[in-house]
Give the backbone structure.
Amino acid sequence: MGFPAFFNGFFMLLEQKVEFAIKGALENLGYEIVRVRFVSSTLQIMIDKSPGGINLEDCSKVSRIVSAIMDSEDIIANHYDLEISSPGISRPLVKVEDYLRFKDNKAQFKLKYELEGSRKINGRIMEIRGNNIIVALDRGDEIEISFEDIDSAHLV
């Protein structure tokens, strides 16, 4: 499975290439890719599935599938370690779909810039408006946060 011509560009990140390569195979088996990261020499892939979540057998199964795909696609030239995990209770919020799915749940946001004197915001995800998330703060008022301003976020 090769990449379409528009994906072969210089600007596609390694994590995006990996996700593109494995997404179809994992989705066909009922898995959702939560996040792909390449840290040092470790390829970290976080997966989930409904209902029931992820167990050790799922991680082993996905590891075998991803290894086979990565070997055939040759995306990472050097030696790397593969780590498959579940999101756990502090599930990261990575995509817009995550915020929609976990609407009305409490989350912690780490922002790229200070907002109201802090880079960390805690609150309930109320709604998605365009490119912004409306968050009800613990103290009672609501704020609007742009997706571009979020460095990381996870459920609390």
